[in-house]
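Researcher: Good morning. I'm working through a list of sequences from a screen, and I'd like to move beyond sequence-only analysis. For each chain I'm collecting a predicted structure so we can compare shapes side by side. This is the next one on the list. No need for commentary yet; just the structure.
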Amino acid sequence: METTKKNTILREGFLVKRGHLVHNWKPRWFVLMPDKLLYYKYKGGKRDSCQRGKILLKDCAITCPFLEYDNRPLVFRLQTKNATEHFLEACSREERDDWAADITAAADKLRTGGGGDESGQTDPAGSHFHDINLSKVLDSMYDVHSGITLTNHVEQGSTYSNCFSGSAMVDWLVFMQLTLTRTEAVTLASALLEEGFLKTVGLKSVEALRTGGEQFLDDSTALYSFAENFKKRGTVKAETSLAAVELSGKVIKRGYLLKQGHKRKNWKVRLFVLRSEPAFLHYYDPTKDDVTPVGGFSLRGCLVSALDDNGVPSGVKGNIQGNLFKIITQSDVHYFIQAPTRQQKMDWIDAIREQI
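Model: Good morning. Structure tokens for this chain:
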């Protein structure tokens, strides 16, 4: 009976989390349980079955609102029993306050009733890291005298040059005292891989990344190399700015949804904002701290419709979760959007139809 209670889902949805290693922001799917807060990554258009982290709620403290980020007013902070800080951003003030209230209620129950999971207080990001600069780590890896050694490897008959194994990378990070343990080294190497500083080479590392398991392998047969385009990282903002009138309407609805890209057809979490008078739907990149939408369109003359979750509709790519809907603009641009739940899909469709 106790197990059933602990496995009860109190709340779930998207929040944007600040990383421990590198202070970037990434959308994650959070699941609130009676004694812990779990989070997952969305791989393509589907939630990863592999848990990415766990925040234990026993004796944690919640600060809401947390106003130290000028450009992120919707952040709240969780501080665990061992003083590890987690910064989470919601899509609206209502969502932020509801999440904070539910987490506080769960923590209060643990405080008065005892119990809870005592098996560690932090997520895999590790609490020993402090403001590690990934660019500096990369510079150290390139150092002629003390950097990581590049060698040739043979895997299943194919020769790969100028690369290194996962275990060699972990050995080097620990030897250079950039991390204290091999587990922390894997976390740091995973961050380098996720940020595009490193790339997978050969079948084993490529397959590990594709299947969504451990991101970086501490393995002598898993191969990696420097990414050729790491110096080109960053995004170039469009020169044309949105007309102020587009953003002047009253905000009707806000929320995190998944959007399929027009060119690469990949799925990314975006913050959607629906406005009226004039009726526009804009979407923002939640990893950025600016207030400029990455896209948007007028709802005048648009068509919006729900898509059947049985099978993959025409025009949709990837391993999708479901709860799809489509918007066709007056200029015949097709937007494929995925909501986290069926109810949210219907709510968005109804809200958009009211503005058309």
